[in-house]
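Workshop exercise sheet. Pairs work together: one partner reads the sequence aloud, the other fills in the structure field after running the prediction. Swap roles for the next sheet.
Pair: D.N. / O.F.
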Amino acid sequence: MNKLLAAGFVLALALPACALAQSSLNGTWKTDVSSMKGSGKPVVISLKDGVYANNAHPPIKVKADGEDHAVTGHPGFDTIAVAVVNDHSFKETEKKAGKVVTTGTFSVAPDGKSGTYQFTDTSGAAPVTGKLMVQRVAKGVPGSNAAAGTWKFGHYGDISASALTATYKIDGDTVSFSDPTGDSYTANINGKAVPFKQGSGVTGTTVSVERDGHNGLRETYYRNGKKTGVDVIEVAADGHSAKFTNHDLESGRTMVAVADKQ
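Structure field:
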């Protein structure tokens, strides 16, 4: 998770309460991997007769021949190569302007009920490696690779600290965010959307920030004027932990996790 959120209060008690909220949020936070829980639309993979497809947004369908194939509508990459490793696993490589940005291998357990996706993301200022475990919901069509089918979120294994750490600072009505991968923004609370700088160099994303309840903040993300996601953070009363929720409006998936103040 590469974003945490902020805190605040409004109306008659704004000044004293806001000062408390700001002091409790300011600093560096690290997500507890074991707390991460995903929900929403499952991932659907098709892999048969040399063709790979999934229900990404927008959907991807390419030959599974290990060669680079152009895709559109994905800001972070413009080609993908899928290679079948064996009858229960495949490897994919995503590139942007000819440069590898992500590699990953998906393997299915011998009983066919679970799968593991191991990945490396080199798109940002700091590389990110990790492992995602998923559970099978349904099998693929007869004759498919065992990796085909419908999969739901299980849990994450080890993930690089650079993907779990974020720093926030609130000064008056200005909030700043940054993380080790190079993502950052500075915005006015309840102000207009501002550019969201990505360490990958991808441009076109903006974010607006507003207060959410007594001790929370809401980040709303846009791309080309279309709302793509909403993040909400709630700092605990003791200021030592925070719950954050990420709603990916394009994929229809939600991730909830707890972060600890460092």
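Discussion prompt: Confidence is low (pLDDT under 50) at residues 1-21. What would you look at next?
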